[in-house]
Amino acid sequence: MRFWExxxxxxxxxxxxxxxxxxxxxxxxxxxxxxxxxxxxxxxxYHHLWETPIRLQIGDWSLSRSLHxxxxxxxxxxxxxxxxxELKRAWISGPLSKPSKALLPIAAxxxxxxxxxxxxxxxxxxxxxxxxxxxxMATDIAFALGVLSLAAPNIPPSYRLFLTALAIADDLxxxxxxxxxxxxxxxxxxxxxxxxxxxxxxxANKIGVRSPLFYATVGIGGVxxxxxxxxxHPTIAGVLAAFMIxxxxxxxxxxxxxxxxxxxxxxxxxxxxNPNVVDPSGAALFHNIxxxxxxxxxxxxxxxxxxxxxxxxxxLPLFALANAGVVLxxxxxxVITEPLVLGVFLGLLVGKVLGICAVGWLAAYITxxxxxxxxxxxxxxxxxxxxxxxxxxxxxxxxxxxKDPQLKASAKTAVLLGSLISGVLAVLLLKIKPLPQAPSxxxxx
Length: 445
What we know:
- The chain has helices spanning about 5-15, 15-40, 45-50, 65-90, 100-125, 140-150, 155-180, 190-205, 210-230, 235-245, 255-270, 280-295, 300-325, 335, 340-365, 380-385, 390-400, 405-430, and strands at about 55-60, 60-65.
- It contains 18 helices and two strands.
- By secondary structure, the protein is an all-alpha fold.
- α5 (about 100-125) runs antiparallel to α15, α15 (about 340-365) crosses α18 and α17 (about 390-400) runs antiparallel to α18 (about 405-430).
């Protein structure tokens, strides 16, 4: 078995806490490497690497982009595809499936998006930098959950669930912001082709097509390519394509258990031969068990299960390596007080906390629902600082918001500083007072 197959297999089988920690550590490592490289004597090699041209050609059709563009427009479309799968699953059977449970984290997420944007505009309204208002709105779910798992490994499930639901709702908000406010001139002919490809995926879902290969082919060859040349950012294609993936299994779990029991009984009752050789009838039984097991999981979960490790251990760290390499300025008072830097930095550090904690508390007060921890507990405010870890999504929006390299560099610097300090403060608050533990079930006698 090849190295990557072994690595992916082991990643899928580690516990949830380790799955949350590992992506955050890889992101942090990639960002540190990028920062050191971009500020080293080899900084020219760093920037030249990402400008390497890549050309795809099929007959007379060709697509030419730099490596940096392929990462941000191609690989990140896969990331947003997984985000779309998670959003759909969350709405169907996850933390956002019940309005009563989803109301508080959604309200907190909305507050955590509005307050940072308002703080940013307070410093930058009426200037060219105002285009960056969406930068401090974003939360990096991988980093936030990673920091939470490292700082408080024995957290109550309700706390992690609240943060997860909040981050998923935040992701949806970020996707909508990118779609409606960070889209260049639209080429309607290409957009119509993309919508036609989406219609094919929708029709295939309704008539019962369950092949992930079919959805991948039409999604990449139709939806993604069409959106890429339409002017709408292709990462939106990833989210829209994900919503077309079937979420219902071909075989129900109960029927699968009945069928599997019958097939296993046949295997048990077969005459024993050479233990190292399976005869054709035995091989057919094993194949039928494998097929039935595959059909009990809907394509949505199969794709999410397959792609999640690739996104966590390859795509996001590669994005961080390509985008976090900011040439750090001399941190004079003039640099720190730039309106763009202050807007992003305070948006993440202050706006996120006020928006998440204040609006979340207000929603709980109005509805009478219970928050995961009391508002007076330091862990409640730690939740706001965890939301202030923008990193991946904030860096991504900063790339879309500005064309001026200097503005991009200032915004990225503020994102890194704001995310770092937010993470440190979240850890300190989680350590000040232990989180209240969920009551353990008493053993039956």
